[in-house]
Specification:
Chain lengths: 112, 114
C-alpha cells in the first residue's frame, strides 16, 4: 500500500527549539518537496530534492534545513531562526521531473 | 508577485448546480496545470490536470478549461455534491516537469449548500 507518511500529525514546541518533521514515501519517487500552508495562503515551496544527496531551496527556505540521505526520506528541520514557524507543513513526492505531486497528510506545527 | 491567482477566496453553490472555479496565471512559461482538492488538516489530493496543447479535459463530473491566450483556466464541477465542499488549489508548472515544484494559487473555498 504505497503512499507518503508524515509524522506526527500535530507537534508542539517552545520558541527557540529546533524541530524535525518526518516525511517518508514508499512510492519509489525520486523527487520530494516540502511546502508550507498558512491561513488564506496557497502552498509555498520550502525545499525540494530531485535525487538523493541533493536538494535546492524553494521560495521560503530561510530558517529551514533538509537532508536527503535516503530516497524514501526527506526530513525537514524548522530551526529557531524561522521567525513564524507555526504552520501546516506538507510533504509531497513525484517521479523524476514529474508534474503530478502526491501529498502526505501534513503536520501541524505550533510554536509558543 | 503572485504568478498563479485565484481571485475568489470562497464560493457558495447550491447542491446539484454547477460550480465554476477560476484561476489566472501570469508566467507564460507555464505549460501544465493541475487542480488539487484539500480538506481541512489533510494533504491536497490531485483532481485533474491539463496541458497547454489542449483546451479542455474532462473526468467524470470535473472538467478543466484552458484559455492560453487569456492565461486563464477554470474548473467546472457538475453536478455539485456536498462532498465537493473543500478548498481547491490551482497549480502550474513550466514544461519539462516540476523540477522546482509547482506554483500554487491561494485556493478557493467551495461550499456546497443543500
Amino acid at each position: 500500500d504505497g503512499g507518503i507518511t508524515q509524522s506526527p500529525k500535530y507537534l508542539f514546541r517552545k520558541e527557540g527549539q529546533n524541530v524535525t518533521l518526518s516525511c517518508e514515501q514508499n512510492l519509489n519517487h525520486d523527487a520530494m518537496y516540502w511546502y508550507r500552508q498558512d491561513p488564506g495562503q496557497g502552498l509555498r515551496l520550502i525545499y525540494y530534492s530531485q535525487i538523493v544527496n541533493d536538494f535546492q531551496k524553494g521560495d521560503i527556505a530561510e530558517g529551514y534545513s533538509v537532508s536527503r540521505e535516503k530516497k524514501e526520506s526527506f526530513p525537514l528541520t524548522v530551526t529557531s531562526a524561522q521567525k513564524n514557524p507555526t504552520a501546516f507543513y506538507l510533504c509531497a513526492s513525484s517521479i523524476q521531473d514529474g508534474l503530478e505531486q502526491y501529498f502526505g497528510p501534513g503536520t501541524r506545527l505550533t510554536v509558543t | 508577485d503572485q504568478q498563479v491567482k485565484q481571485n475568489s477566496p470562497s464560493l457558495s453553490v447550491q447542491e446539484g448546480r454547477i460550480s465554476i472555479l477560476n484561476c489566472d496565471y501570469t508566467n507564460s512559461m507555464f505549460d501544465y496545470f493541475l487542480w488539487y482538492k484539500k480538506y481541512p488538516a489533510e494533504g491536497p489530493t490531485f483532481l485533474i490536470s491539463i496541458s497547454s496543447i489542449k483546451d479542455k479535459n474532462e473526468d467524470g463530473r470535473f472538467t478543466v478549461f484552458l484559455n492560453k491566450s487569456a492565461k486563464h483556466l477554470s474548473l467546472h464541477i457538475v453536478p455539485s455534491q456536498p462532498g465537493d465542499s473543500a478548498v481547491y488549489f490551482c497549480a502550474a508548472s513550466p514544461s519539462g516537469g516540476g523540477a522546482d515544484g509547482l506554483t500554487f494559487g491561494k485556493g478557493t473555498h467551495l461550499i456546497i449548500q443543500p
